[in-house]
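Today's session is about reading a structure prediction critically. Students often jump straight to the picture, but the first step is always the sequence itself: look for stretches that repeat, for charged clusters, for runs of hydrophobic residues. Only then move on to the predicted structure, which in these notes is written as discrete structure tokens rather than atom positions. Here is the chain we will use throughout the hour.
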Amino acid sequence: MVDDAVKLLRQQGLVRITAGTIVATRLGRAATRAHLTVAETRLALSRLIESRSNLDLSSPLHLLYLSVPASPRVPVNWALMLDEFLTLTDEQRALCERLGASEGVLLRRLRGEKVGDEEQLSRLFQTLLLRHLVAEESLVEVSRRFQTNRGRAQALLQATSSYCAALQAISAEFEELWPFRELLPQFLLRLSFCAGTELLALLELPGVKKARAKQLLSAGFSTLASLAAAKAEELADKVEHLSKRSARAIVQAAQLHLRMRAEELREEADVVAAAAEGKSSEI
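Below is the predicted structure for this chain, in token form.
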């Protein structure tokens, strides 16, 4: 029975035998870390590899599209999709057209013609909905605009966050996917909090939620460094409903975070210096 299981895992490309030892392949580790089936992992991997060379970073739209799982949560409304398409920038429209959703295709779908890739068009419709949530528009407003209930929109956001985390796990196992390894962690934070990039650093602090992060930003504390340098009394005075005790905890958390980051950078610098020294001694 064990031999049969190992044989099946080898056939699926999840393990290999090295010197009599069963070793997980990159695909095997990726599937395990991503909590996806083998087929789902292969599909996600192929999509990442395919989009690697033409990744559009002019806006979050392409990363958002890649993060949307295959199973649709919100039914496609072709009239709404066309309206959304017409509000996009030129770069975003070009991306949609590359993904099979040109103005002509959407007009034909509106007339009832079965053209275009159904799965791709559906994922793109979900993407167009999500871009409003990522831009910090309210769930109520977005649900109303897309003529769906809040439960479906919330489920779509949660499923997309989970799939984005799976993509992050997959990219960690494949060196050639380094662009996604760099981009996805920050993007996952943005999805999880539905917050702009200026809030993400503040949201890393324990106990700081989105509303508090916005208060800190409005009070002029836009970075961890500005918080670390602040006095607790000053912070409490500038931020409404923030006690001195909570302000002190935020300042200390920011200072600790910066110290840890500085230590990580020193360790990385030591590794680079040691590698450079080793190479110079070989010459």
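Discussion point for the tutorial: The chain has a mean pLDDT of 88.
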